[in-house]
Write a structure and sequence with these properties.
mainly alpha; two-stranded parallel sheet; two-stranded antiparallel ribbon; about 65% helix; membrane; transmembrane; MFS; transmembrane helix
């Protein structure tokens, strides 16, 4: 057995820091652990990694509260079926204190030591950041595919002989979003069992195959099927991305990459029509799929080919180490410190059942998920239909999309949201204001497009309208998501990720159904009256949902929201 396999727990540098448990009789310490303790006493500050860079001492590798909030609020897809109270990071206990060999009563616990070469946080800095860049780039590329063929809907109908089946062509675009909503239920739990590297690599290969299949399809139904599969497989990289970032960077160091990751999600989503306009003009809409598949394949090779390859999940790596040590030492009591005591079947069942149980048993969860779904569906509707509605203004379509994207991004920028007993009504007032901004902006956008006749003098109307829609919808999503974090943040941590995953499901359904419905309404009623009808329907649904949410805010034994300040950035 190599020294690397023996080094499974860190040792305190001094007797004062070690505590009372260091005075155990030698007979009670297993040989494999005794070798580890004797080989790692002393100062590690002079040690270096393989690339010559000094090893950074991390007294508390557990990510802090700010990072945890970013993980659960900005990236709600991260739900791996493991209870939060058992999903502690390697190297610290539930209180955030460093775990050492001296503080462990059970000598059968397998853990890292400070300079463990198998610990992903001890990778060279360049290797970690290349891996993080690949995760962020994959997220951007996958999200870019949501609406990138929206400008090519007329060409798709012509190629497949769809005639006047405008709604079916619109669903071929938005069904990708349905796959994005269902993917996280599968991939986050599987990545918790087998590790994100293996699961993401396989899903990326399947995503490339599904995307290339979109190039060779000969019917609209086949295109819809391939687009759905591409959405399901592609969202694996998006759903597991935040976990990879937290596995590689400790504490506040992961805050900036997580924010860049979230920004890539937003920019990729709103940037899809830009790619479709610039690259998919004329009969070249199939080229978009070749480009997307090639980029994803290249980024996948970066993840699996040396020198940047390697598993990042501490839970999976420690389980593999414990299994290897049990086989080599014959001690069947050895177990990983991150072992939650759940079988693979339990983790998978929790990740599937938890969101649906909470969605159908809690009116609060259903209401908040509905609000997020309405706002997200409105964004998908604008991105998918803008080229059809503004077809008499082709020169200004990029400008319309630009201002809508600016609104979506700036809706996420408020730095502090004070949430407590005195400000709870203020929070929901913000949701109401966001809904009014969305509806009024949508009505202004539709009527000016219809009566303006393509005149440059009134182009400011659709610009302000789309800016208002982007700001309002993003404002609603941010406010409701943070409120959801507080409402379902129970001590056991089980309901919070389930509620977030439930909102992802509803978000995917609304995002898939709104675009074809909007195309149907616009085609029958026109841009002006159609936008009025759609805005009125969304406002009524949102108001009814808001009332139901307020009436049932006592769910799960939380009569009021706990006072706190949520610092987003």
């Amino acid at each position: 057995m190599s020294d690397q396999d023996k080094t499974v727990t860190p040792t305190p540098a001094s007797d004062d820091a070690a505590g009372p448990h260091t005075q155990q009789p030698p007979s009670t310490i297993p040989e494999w652990r005794n070798n580890e303790i004797s080989s790692h006493n002393g100062n590690h500050s002079d040690q270096e990694r393989g690339d010559g860079s000094p090893i950074e001492e991390e007294s508390n590798p557990k990510y802090d509260d700010t990072t945890d909030e970013l993980l659960m609020n900005l990236v709600p897809d991260y739900f791996d079926g493991i209870p939060a109270r058992q999903r502690q990071d390697a190297g610290s206990d539930a209180n955030g204190n460093a775990v050492t060999a001296a503080s462990q009563d059970d000598n059968n616990i397998v853990d890292w030591h400070q300079d463990d070469p198998e610990n992903p946080r001890n990778w060279p800095t360049w290797r970690k950041y290349i891996r993080i860049f690949s995760v962020i780039a994959l997220t951007y590329t996958v999200r870019l595919g949501a609406c990138m063929i929206a400008p090519s809907i007329p060409m798709i109908m012509q190629d497949f002989g769809a005639g006047d089946r405008l709604e079916a062509a619109g669903f071929a675009v938005s069904v990708y979003i349905l796959g994005l909503g269902l993917g996280p239920l599968l991939w986050t739990s599987l990545s918790a069992i087998y590790g994100p590297l293996a699961v993401t690599s396989i899903c990326n290969v399947c995503f490339v195959g599904s995307t290339v299949g979109c190039v060779f399809v000969r019917s609209l139904a086949a295109l819809i099927a391939c687009r759905f599969l591409a959405g399901v497989f592609g969202h694996c990289a998006v759903a597991t991305g935040p976990g990879v970032i937290v596995d590689l960077l400790a504490g506040a160091r992961s805050k900036t990459p997580l924010m860049l990751y979230h920004l890539a999600r937003v920019l990729g989503f709103v940037g899809g029509p830009f790619a479709g306009i610039w690259l998919g003009t004329d009969a070249r809409w199939r080229v978009l799929f070749w480009i997307q598949a090639g980029v994803v394949l290249a980024l996948t090779l970066v993840m699996v080919v040396p020198p940047c390859h390697g598993e990042t999940s501490a839970r999976v790596l420690l389980q593999r180490r414990a299994k290897r040590l049990r086989r080599e030492n014959g001690n069947m009591q050895l177990r990983s410190r991150l072992d939650a005591g759940l079988t693979a079947r339990d983790i998978f069942r929790r990740s599937i059942q938890g969101p649906f149980q909470l969605l159908f048993s809690s009116k609060t969860c259903a209401g908040t998920a509905m609000l997020v779904g309405l706002a997200y569906g409105c964004q998908c509707m604008i991105l998918t239909t803008v080229c059809h509605v503004a077809k008499s203004w082709p020169v200004f379509i990029p400008m319309f999309l630009t201002f809508f994207a600016v609104g979506c991004v700036f809706g996420l920028l408020p730095r502090r949201w004070t949430i407590g007993d005195a400000s709870e009504k203020i929070l929901w007032r913000r949701v109401l204001y966001g809904g009014v901004a969305v509806c009024l902006g949508h009505v202004l956008y539709g009527w000016v497009l219809e009566v303006g006749g393509g005149s440059r003098r009134v182009v400011v109307g659709p610009v302000y309208g789309l800016l208002s829609v982007g700001l309002g919808s993003s404002y609603i999503i941010t406010a409701v998501r943070r409120d959801m974090n507080l409402r379902f943040n129970r001590p056991d941590g089980d309901n919070e990720p389930s509620a977030a995953a439930a909102s992802v499901i509803v978000r995917g359904i609304f995002g898939a159904l709104f675009p074809p419905l909007a195309l149907f309404v616009y085609d029958r009623l026109g841009a002006g009256l159609g936008s009025t009808v759609l805005s009125a329907a969304m406002f009524v649904l949102g108001a009814a949902t808001l009332l139901l949410t307020n009436l049932h805010k006592l769910d799960h034994g939380r009569p009021t929201l706990e006072g706190r300040v949520w610092a987003a950035f």
